[in-house]
Amino acid sequence: MNKSILLASFIFPERLDWFLNYLETKFNVTKDKVFCYNNINDDSKIILTFKLLLPEGKKIDLKNLFPNAIIIHKKGTAFYTINALNKLIESKFGDDIGNIDYKSYQVDWSEYQDKMILIDKKELIVLDLKRVF
Question: Has this prediction a pTM greater than 0.70?
């Protein structure tokens, strides 16, 4: 049984063709399975999202194979990391709420469609995305 992980990789636009070729030759991920987004506020890098299928029990060295990639999750067209989701919940519901059961809080995902929620240097970052392909 295969395990699927969703990744987002931040690359320079001039590396797009190389990266798509790398995904196809090394991991059998074809271009039609890769989605490209522009960060509306910063066009220095593009964001590619794609799934990798891993055989059950097989480990992968993501930092070595994809140095500029992170594991993400998705709700509609909203992308997020687990740590960023937890930080978002803390910011929405107050950071003095003590030992938090994060699963008991509901996020209004309609506010975050076409966005990517990340943490950078312990700060919550919400990127506005525009899909290219």
Answer: yes
